[in-house]
Predict the structure.
Amino acid sequence: MTPFMRRFVALLRKETRQLLRDRSNLAVGLLLPVVLILLFGYGLSFDVRDAPVGILLEDRSPDARAVVAGLQGSPYIAPVWLTDMPEGVERMRLGEIRGILRVPIDFARQLSAGHAQVQLVVNGVDTNTAATIESYVSGAIGIWAQRQADRAGSAAGGVGRVVVVPRMWFNEASSSTWYLVPGLMVLVLTLIGAFLTSLLIAREWERGTLEALFVTPVRPLEMVLAKLAPYLVIGTIDLFVCLLAAHFLFEVPIRGSMLAIVVSSMLYLTVSLSLGLFISGAMRSQFLASQMALLASFMPALMLSGFIFDLRNVPVVIQIISQVLPATHFMGLLKTLFLAGDNWAMFARNCSILALYALILIAASRRSLRKRLP
Amino acid sequence: MRALVTYLVRVGFLCRKELLMLLADPQTRAMLFLPALLQSLLFGYGATYDLTNAPYAVLDLSRGAASTALLARVDGTGVFHRVATLRSASGIAGVIDRGDALLVLSIPGDFEARLAAGSAAPLQVILDGRNSTTAAAAAGYVGAIVTAYNQTLGAAPLIVVERRAWYNPNLESRWNLMPALIGALSMLQTLLLSALSVAREREQGTFDQLLVTPLTPMQILIGKALPSILVGLVQSTTIFLIIRFWFQIPMSGSVWLLYLGLFTFTGAAVGIGLSISALSVSMQQAMLYTFLTIMPLMLLSGLMSPVSNMPRVLQIVTYVNPLRFGMDLVRRVYLEGAGLREVAFDFVPMLAVAGVTLPLAAWLFRNRLA
């Protein structure tokens, strides 16, 4: 056994014992991923269900009833019948309904004249639900109107028109869960990394045990690697828990090869663990390190990595900032590997970026452990 | 009377010591007040669902006047940017796979002929579903362009749906997200701050000293809770000011009601934090338990997607989450101009959480077996 290995194994045993001794480590290492998977997988969804929409029929003619009949039985909206507008306004204010569809008193008369109008008021605070209600309501009414027009038009000779035939690739059912679950894996690996390792060095600085280590022959790099290794094992377990959940629980297709997914995930896991370690070494105080770990990991990975918000829509400055985050590179790669299949050019490019980050962060953590007192 | 003064003076001393610990160190000061500022700016620009830039590719097999006119309308929106003009269907997979284009508009060879014959001419839209929310928004936009184009052909729709959006007339997603951050961003740091406060003293051994002073557990609780609540409110105020004056999102409701809600909400968050703190033996434990708590609180709050989209069981679970109701209150007071009557219910779960966790923490200070 080389001296390097001997020292490394000794440190590794110490770190592993410290990890296993405190139950809170295992709670976060093994329980948090499961909690996150379940909450994200089931709790986060952009697919609107049963949004209550008030329907106000000021015109009670058969035509008016027929035009709103198409709204019933839809999974997206749940019709609520209103008697008058003040009732609708009151229920909107109380948050009981998300929108009001008003069929005006002269609807049938205008319809026979060929230009009818209905009014849709939506609560714009929740923009996603508002847009879904609008597109669903105008879609249903449009279909009804088209059918009416076709019936009338077949006698009079039709007018040509363009119809849109949409096809969603990679996500045929257009389910938000499909793109959220790969993103969720990125988030789990980011959080595990940052949370578990961010106190490791700071704690030793605060307790003075690091100074004791300085008088031993161990080298900074050995300390860094020994601190990373046990957590890498925990992270790997989490990785497979995520993959199993994605496949069996959420039935998200895994179209790329397992090899590519596992290799890139392990690489990213190393990056996020060494980021935590780097924060720990740079801050030297548990209080600052934990605040920093929380700030640097969760919200950026959630908001700026392309997890939910499409980076194509953000200003250039934010795009540049998002490119600095390692999570962004892993996010794009993992979504592609899951939904689109192997893309080796992208794999090579993004994995090299991640490898570069891992090297830089490990080197930086090593630097913060130089045997010199502050 | 005199007893009350002594009581308050003692609490005041503890508050002062706690505040000094937080504010004396420049690094800690920066850590508590800068992130709220930076994050609200970053996320204000970065967190948007609004489609502003949709690169697309065209496969136009018809090359007639009609398809040219339709494509000119697509280009004219300023949102769609043509990145490729394809010659055959075999090119579609490439531009979508590489992510060069969010969508491909495919126009069949008989497009012009079908339109002239007075029948329906299909415009195929192939979308990259790797982010199905953006893709659906782009599809909706194309649909609206086509509807407008059809009208020029004389195919006027029989029924016009006239849409109006209350409280957010242009349906900007930033308006939905930013007020929610007033609660969410400050909760992250405040909860961690309070969770570390007692754990730090335990780890350093000073908490035992605090216990032998004449301070009662209730006084310790108030002395520990108030500074954290104060930090939380300062953070909320920073974010609030940025939203109001930098992003200029109009505020419709009462500032007093907003702050009453924020105070209650922050109190509940600090209560959770102090309970965690009282249970932990070390800062490491306090931090990890905090993370274990914060994640569900954030995810089940309605920050990213509305609570009403969740399965029923999870919706019930959210009733113990002060962030869900704090966020609902802030959004509705800020954007809808809701009054106390409309948001009264939001106070119930927040007060309940504060009413349980704060006394629990005080009890745990003395009765936890180390």
